[in-house]
Amino acid sequence: METQEVKNTLDINQIKQYLPHRYPLLLVDRVLDWESGKSITAIKNVTVNEEFFNGHFPHKPVMPGVLMIEALAQTAALLSFLTMGQKPDDNSVVYFVGIDGARFKRPVEPGDQLRMQVEILRTARGIWKYKAQATVDGQVAVEAELMCTMRSATDASQPAGQ
Predict the structure, then answer these.
(1) Fewer beta carbons under 10 A from the terminal one: N or C of the chain?
(2) Triad 22, 117, 72: Cα angle to 5°
(3) Bigger pLDDT: 152 or 74?
(4) Amino acid 159: pLDDT
């Protein structure tokens, strides 16, 4: 009997258990694979029905770069929660601490599939640092190093690391 490689996948209903985001800001459609403490690969199917295409830009629709970074951050948050083996509660929030070296290499248009790959670089004092990249058809669309922290909503007004 042939052995099959088992992949850790998540469908949209499972993703919604880990991310508080909902339409129109939920930007991860499926997790293709993840390894605890290491990396995750997920996809975002980009369709012309996305709200932001009405204004960005009607004559040449492209996905805003800030939303590509947000999609990568949501993918990173998924990896962190999966690594910790816990789901966020109603009091959990994940905040950006920093975005370094963001580079936009190719426009993302309706019909594209954004393939997001995020790797944990390190965690220290409650701050997670990730290497993140999104590609379309094997071409890099965006890359950046992201730093995030998880806080309780009641403590969210306090600076990170305090």
Answers:
(1) N
(2) 35
(3) 74
(4) 61
Q: Which two tokens stand for residue 49?
A: 């029905």
Nearest alpha carbon to residue 67 among 80, 53, 81, 79: 53
> From the CA atom positions of the chain, what is the Rg in Å?
16
Positions marked active-site: 56
Give the tens place of pLDDT for each residue, 63-114: 999 999 999 999 999 999 999 999 998 888 889 999 999 999 999 999 999 9
How many Cβ atoms sit within 10 Å of the Cβ of residue 138?
A: 6
Residue 151 vs residues 1, 88, 93, 126: alpha-carbon distances, Å: 47, 10, 5, 9
Report the alpha-carbon distance of residue 47 to residue 66 in Å, rounded.
Answer: 17
pLDDT at residue 124 greater than cutoff 70: yes
All structural domains of the chain, each given as residue ranges with its CATH number in brackets, are 12-155 (3.10.129.10)
